[in-house]
Amino acid sequence: MFPEPGDIFPAWKSSYIKKVTFPSGQDYLVGSGIYNMKMDEFFIEDMVDQAAALIEDKGRAAFEVLRDKKGPFYFMDTYIFVSSPDGTELVNPALPSLEGRNLIDMKDLDGNPVVKNEIDLAMNKGSGWLEMSWFKPGTNTPAPKMTFVKKAKANGETFIVGSGYYPEENK
């Protein structure tokens, strides 16, 4: 996080930097950045795909990386969560108190069984999107939330890996 020009408070900034070598042999770093980048479906799917690949490679050892709020799987209000097929929350860096609890009966604000629907989608189709009604972080305001989930397997275990975002924040 860095303050925007002319501001004193830090804000999320996404940056891209590339090393360039000139014909003279001199190396330069060229970069650009944007403050408060908007979430989109591609970003979420890519993050979930990377997390699922990490789990498939490292198994439960990947959970430490997924929990790290300063790591690559936590950005603004977006983070990776991991559940077991029975509904037990295994990773939730935003709400660590949920880890180890069975959330299979948890419902969204419209009464839909969120965790059950996430598990059913991932187990039956491999991956996909769900819409739910949820409280925006830090508020009591209900809002539509889009969640992408994917099934991952490692060491004989199956995991449901997911992340979500609030589309209205992109307007």
UniProtKB/TrEMBL annotation:
What kind of membrane protein is this, topologically?
Multi-pass membrane protein
Principal localization reads membrane
One GO term of the cellular component aspect? Answer: plasma membrane
Where found in the cell? Cell membrane
Q: Does Transmembrane helix appear among the keywords? A: yes
Tell me where on the tree of life, at the top rank, the source sits: Bacteria
Keywords per UniProt: Cell membrane, Membrane, Transmembrane, Transmembrane helix
Q: Does the keyword Membrane apply?
A: yes
Domain (Single Cache) ranges: 35-116
Record Pfam families: dCache_2
Q: Which residues cross the membrane?
A: none
What this protein is called in its record is: Sodium:calcium antiporter
Q: Which organism is it from?
A: Salinimicrobium catena
